[in-house]
Amino acid sequence: MSEINTPHSTPASTPASTHSPLTAKRASGKIKWRLWTLAVLVLAAAGAWWALGRTSGEGAPKTEAAASAGAGQSKGPGSNRPQPISAMAAKRQDVNVTVPAIGTITALQTAAVRSRVDGELFKLHFREGSLVQQGQLLAELDHRPYLATLEQAKGLYERDAAALKNAELDLKRYTELVASDSVSKQQLDTQEALVKQLKGTVANDKAAVDSAKVQLDYSYLNAPLSGRLGLRLIDLGNVVHASDTTGVVSITQTQPISLVFSVPEIYLPQINKKLKASQGLPVLALDREQKRPLAKGQLTITDNAIDTSTGTIRLKALFPNQDNSLFPNQFVNVRLQIDTEKDALVVPVNAIQRGSMGTFVYQVKEDNTVTLKKVKTRAVDGDWVSVEGDVKPGDRLVTDGADRLREGAKVEVIESARPTEGARPKAP
After folding, report:
1. CATH classification of the domain holding 410
2. Is residue 226 a contact partner of residue 111, using CB atoms and an 8 Å limit?
3. Domain final residue, candidates 341, 370, 403
4. Got the DSSP string for 273-333?
5. d(Cα 44, Cα 51) in Å, to the nearest integer?
6. Kind of pairing, strands 83-89 and 411-416?
7. 237 and 116, same structural domain?
8. Contact at 8 Å (CB) between 347 and 359?
9. One domain, residues 137 and 193
10. Is residue 172 one of the residues assigned to a domain?
11. pLDDT tens-digit profile of 377-412?
């Protein structure tokens, strides 16, 4: 039987899956998946571009070249955002011109309390580390042998003094008898010689008494000068000899006290000029951190030669040290004031920036943008430094956050910086 083709029959040569509903659904799903993938990639690229622009515009520190390039450079997406900074105004004030140095506290006088005689250490009348006055009794040796020697010398003196007195009376009588020829001239001469001999003996006895008194006094050890005592070097009961080199205790004069330090020889002409004019040069002693002032003194003298190995000159300053804040051999930082700049233009030390163009500051303008101003620094006095340049009193200068700035950058002042306490130590 022959086959009859109807309009709804499918030709044998056409695949059944080409026009099936399942195949069309799968093709539509693939297209959607590709579109979603493309959309995710576009969003990721946009996010990366935005993050890169934000980092380069705000977070990356600016180099010196970028700081001086000016306003013509291209800016990232975050460059228009104001940068938070601290600022402080320039002003005029007196600036102390000081020379920093390091020095050592030195006692004006130092002495070892030593005995001049031999004897057992009998008593101590001091406390270690205490302050004593010149002549104050510090220790006693066993003085009984020296007291006995003194009494013996006094006895000899009194015996010979009595013999001299008797001989002088006889001489007086012989003189009267010679006038009446009752005594020969020879007897008178002999009596005169005896009187002279006894006078010499009495003088010798008196010297022996004085010597015994001195030896007895030496058994009492007194302070040779006013100052502070050190640690005891010998205990009670030990025998002290005049030949001992250590002594019983040492004593140093601490009121006043001196400070020895060195400064570069370039300052010597200015220092000598002040000293010759009897103008005081204040010297401030500071602790190791250079934050706390210890004492204030005056420069008194310079050394007689420059140290050629270091190119420095040694100086000595004197401190009253009434509060005993300075100790011998103590290390201190020193600030020698050699001059004062009157009514100088000063800016905060933190405002000074340094780069290839030299030293400069960032000034905050009225529209809250910054501009670069070149300055030349002079003397530093605590938190302030005197400058020369295109800066006027009252100009607000960036003191914190300058590393993120460039010419024309927008800023937001979040704090007006002030000098920290103790940055400019004041004399006590």
Report:
1. 2.40.420.20
2. no
3. 341
4. HHHHTT---EEEEE-TTS-SEEEEEEEEEEEEEEETTTTEEEEEEEE--TT----TT-EEE
5. 11
6. parallel
7. yes
8. no
9. yes
10. yes
11. 988 887 899 999 888 899 999 998 888 888 888 988
What tokens appear for 108 in the block?
Answer: 């004006």
Q: Are 399 and 350 in contact (CB under 8 A)?
A: yes
Cβ atoms 83, 411 nearer than 8 A: yes
- 82 and 153 both lie in a single domain: no
Report the C-alpha gap between 134 and 223 in whole angstroms.
5
- Least confidently predicted of 62-66, 147-151, 233-237: 62-66
**DSSP SS3 for 358:** strand
Axis-axis angle for helices 144-179, 185-218 (nearest 10): 160
Cβ(403)–Cβ(62) below 8 Å: yes
For residue 63, list its beta bridge partners: none
226/34: higher pLDDT = 226
The residue among 294, 325, 341 that closes a domain is: 341
137: its two tokens: 């009794």
CB 313 within 8 A of CB 265: yes
Please, are residues 395 and 90 in contact by the beta-carbon 8 Å criterion?
Answer: yes
Cα separation, 405 vs 365, in Å, equals 14
Domain count, the chain: 3
Q: What are 290-346's pLDDT values in tens digits?
A: 888 999 999 999 999 999 999 999 999 999 999 889 999 999 999 999 888 888 899
For residue 21, with 0-12 CB atoms within 10 Å meaning exposed, 13-18 middle and 19 or more buried, which class applies?
Answer: exposed
**What pLDDT, in 10s, does the model give residues 163-179?**
999 999 988 888 888 87
* Same domain as 181, residue 82: no
DSSP, res 409 = -
| Token pair listed for 250 | 């040492």
Asked if pLDDT for residue 230 goes beyond 80, the answer is yes
